[in-house]
Amino acid sequence: MDDFYFSDPPGQWTLPVAKAGLPIIAASAFATLVVAILGFQVTAVIGLLWTFAVVGFFRDPDRAIPAGDDLIVSPADGKVIVVSPGSINPYTKAEAQKISIFMSVFNVHVNRIPSSGKITAVRYHPGRFVPADRETASLRNEQNAVFLATEKGASLCVVQVAGLIARRIICHVQAGDRIKRGQRFGLICFGSRLDLYLPAEAQLDVRVGDRVSAGTSILARLN
Known about the structure:
alpha+beta; 16 strands; Glucose Permease (Domain IIA); globular
């Protein structure tokens, strides 16, 4: 039987929600209550449905993370739209293998660390908001790059890329932090993508069209 572990303490709520979403959920619920008291029934029903939709977007389920020092797990939920072994990391200009994951508004948007190690740098870049499923989004959109060194010394780069309607990238880690595979490190609001740059020698275990889950789906293995 394969071994699994929790990189973060399990949530205390039946329906775990990311903390970043609580103010938005509260504001939506309050506005719905106000229009309901004022007697605007149709608007109140719409507001209630919207509140449930926001709760669904910010859901943050616990995940059992597969154990194994050589494993690279998915940093996001969504659909794999790019697998490119012969890519160049635009930040380091080094040869890399690129995996891009598109997150629709229906996916869990909490991002997780792909491999245990240490954060070496975090770089934020403002930009545009073209649809995240376009390849140009990797170069033109607002993004936040997280660089990490694995426990065996390999260098990885995870880039949070904003989407068409995303206006907020959240990142909770900073240079010097020690991190575990599958640990939560941030989220992107309302549709986006993640680009993962791996060493050229990594053995990929994913292909375009695959559906993956953050922290649980194995994308690659390091030699």
